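TICKET: design request
STATUS: open
ATTACHED STRUCTURE:
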């Protein structure tokens, strides 16, 4: 009788061992479009890091152990069967070892089996208790909200915070400090229900911007590492650019994950898919920051330092995202690759545009930056700023925009002046909607930022070649000279900072209306920059410049605001002196705009050209102010609809 019992026990253990071995062996198999190919190395893909190098024997052993344990904790009927078998084995072997007199070798073997079975049973039962995974899961996507109502920032959120706890994981995840004692100012979703942002007080260090993403288990980490290697091979070797996106469809990713680990619950597939997209096709650690529409700038000053962001409401904030030295070098190389630029120790600095239109400046290694690689990313709105946005934000008043509308419509040239991040380019883009719809427009930029709905618009940008001995750089000066041969009515220059300014002023003096920006804190500072080295525009040429708009950024309480400080007309007197005559000014105490001069050379020239009386001129200005009032009452008109309405009123 005892022999039969021992035989049954041995058979049960053998079956469990074979099942675990088969499950582990599956992780060493790579699927390609041509069939199944076994890896040349005996370790599974989980022991290969993200650079494709061996991580060591320890990772291999851990991967096999985690795979074996996963068989007993999976919330499936197979997992319950494995668990029942190992528990039964533990009970039977323990009873036999304790209560039946056996030979010493056989007793030793049964004792070892009993101890191992009890240990595995205890771990599996504890894991199932913590995950509440006693019965098989029957609903799909419960985490992703398929069967639950989505929560918003206005609803009670506390019970769900545990779902987003930050894990200690090899897969790049932001590690958040313990900020639970700080005052929480705000939280909001970035990609519901996977990532959200909290802005809160961190002791005496001020406000901190923290990224929160879903936690993943040790088993899921292994599955992700294996799937990374497989998808990387598919994307690099097995696809063309046209069909690579198909491999990121949820159904495709779910099938690949199932190939590596059939026991992964359905409600965890969405989370694993999120991380696969984030790390392979997205920006990795910066994915949440890049997706947050409330951020304007992202910057990293070196490794082991927090990434800083510029928030539209709270200004500059440190984050809980940081890079180690090797990670940062790899990340800046990835940024350069996304921007189709080359960066190396011989060419350690790159200015480029990312696929989503964001502007990026990169330094590689410690050749230039002593703290190591660094980057600064300037994000732009998906939908360009419009005059209605400027009014809603309080940057301009309907009266000032009505004046600019009339001026730009009648081919007046203007220069937008301001400091860094003051909104110069956004303002210039917004007021460019006042350009007549069919006018020929040519824009010149180092990095594409201008977005116009006009069909007769030719956008151009500079080109920089890094190859030694190869000529072909195209700067703003070259673009501007070529632009003059295209008979433009309006010329838009993203920013003047060099010799192209002289050509721009020559274009003004030959009858072309121009719009441009320049870095300066005031009208006089802008004039000083333009009339001295290295630009040296002769004062007499300022007669063609009609208006200068000064814009700045301020902090009011906890808010960051941008305001049009003043609008000036430019004149040159008989002695060759450049004069700036203020027309509108911003009152900081009341946060209002006031007209400081009712005499305007620009308006007088427009009235003379159109044959208007003073009453006609006043009526045209009032008509445009009323237009803004009516348009603001509408619900989010598109930029095309707004441009058409502006064109109809101008006619």
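STATUS: resolved
RESOLUTION: sequence designed for all positions
ATTACHED SEQUENCE:
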């Amino acid at each position: 009788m005892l022999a039969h019992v021992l035989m049954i026990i041995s058979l049960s253990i053998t079956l469990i061992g074979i099942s675990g071995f088969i499950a582990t062996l599956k992780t060493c198999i790579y699927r390609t479009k041509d069939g199944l190919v076994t890896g040349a190395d005996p370790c599974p893909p989980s022991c290969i890091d993200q650079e494709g190098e061996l991580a060591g024997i320890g990772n291999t052993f851990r991967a096999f152990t985690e795979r074996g344990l996963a068989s007993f904790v999976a919330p499936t009927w197979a997992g319950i069967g494995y668990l029942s078998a190992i528990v039964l084995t533990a009970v039977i072997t323990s009873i036999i070892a304790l209560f039946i007199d056996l030979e010493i070798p056989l007793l030793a073997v049964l004792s070892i089996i009993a101890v191992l079975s009890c240990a595995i049973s205890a771990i599996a039962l504890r894991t199932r208790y913590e995950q509440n995974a006693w019965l098989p899961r029957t609903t799909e996507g419960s985490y992703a909200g398929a069967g639950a109502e989505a929560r918003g920032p206005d609803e009670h959120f506390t019970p769900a915070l545990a779902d987003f706890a930050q894990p200690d994981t090899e897969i790049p995840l932001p590690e958040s400090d313990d900020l639970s004692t700080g005052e929480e100012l705000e939280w909001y979703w970035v990609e519901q229900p996977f990532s959200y942002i909290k802005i809160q007080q961190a002791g005496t260090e001020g406000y901190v911007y923290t990224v929160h993403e879903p936690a993943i288990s040790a088993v899921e980490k292994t599955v992700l590492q294996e799937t990374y290697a497989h998808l990387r091979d598919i994307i690099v070797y097995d696809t063309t650019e046209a069909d690579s996106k198909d491999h990121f469809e949820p159904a495709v990713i779910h099938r690949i994950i199932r190939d590596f680990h059939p026991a992964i619950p359905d409600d965890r597939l969405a989370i694993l898919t999120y991380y696969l997209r984030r790390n392979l096709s997205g920006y990795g650690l910066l994915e949440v920051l890049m997706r947050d529409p409330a951020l304007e700038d992202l910057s990293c000053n070196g490794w082991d330092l927090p990434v800083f962001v510029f928030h539209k409401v709270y200004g500059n904030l440190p984050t809980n995202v940081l890079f180690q030295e090797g990670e940062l070098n790899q990340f800046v190389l990835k940024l350069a690759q996304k921007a189709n630029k080359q960066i190396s120790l011989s060419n350690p600095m790159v200015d480029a545009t990312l696929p989503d239109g964001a502007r990026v400046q990169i330094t590689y290694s410690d050749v230039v930056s002593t703290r190591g690689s660094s980057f600064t990313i300037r994000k732009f709105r998906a939908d360009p700023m419009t005059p209605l946005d400027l009014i809603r934000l309080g940057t301009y008043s309907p009266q000032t925009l009505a004046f600019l509308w009339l001026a730009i419509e009648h081919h007046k040239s203007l220069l937008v002046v301001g400091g860094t991040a003051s909104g110069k380019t956004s303002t210039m883009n917004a007021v460019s909607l006042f350009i007549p719809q069919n006018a020929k427009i040519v824009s010149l930029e180092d990095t594409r930022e201008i977005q116009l709905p006009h069909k007769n618009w030719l956008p151009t940008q500079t080109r920089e070649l890094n190859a030694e001995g190869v000529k072909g750089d195209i700067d703003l000066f070259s673009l501007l000279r070529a632009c003059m041969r295209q008979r433009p009515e309006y010329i838009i220059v993203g920013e003047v900072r060099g010799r192209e300014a002289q050509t721009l002023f020559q274009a003004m003096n030959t009858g072309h209306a121009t719009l441009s920006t320049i870095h300066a804190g005031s009208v006089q500072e802008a004039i000083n920059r333009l009339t001295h080295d290295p630009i040296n525009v002769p004062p007499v040429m300022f007669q063609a410049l009609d208006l200068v708009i000064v814009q700045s950024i301020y902090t009011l309480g906890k808010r960051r605001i941008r305001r049009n400080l003043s609008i000036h007309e430019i004149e040159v007197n008989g002695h060759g002196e450049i004069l700036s005559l203020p027309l509108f000014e911003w009152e900081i105490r009341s946060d209002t705009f006031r007209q400081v001069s009712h005499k305007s050379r620009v308006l007088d020239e427009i009235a003379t050209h159109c044959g208007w009386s003073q009453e006609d001129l006043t009526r045209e200005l009032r008509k445009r102010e009323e237009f803004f009032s009516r348009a603001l009452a509408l619900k989010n008109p598109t930029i095309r609809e707004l441009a058409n309405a502006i064109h109809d009123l101008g006619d």
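CLOSING REMARK: The first strand starts at residue 29 and ends at 32. DSSP finds 18 helices and 20 strands in the chain.
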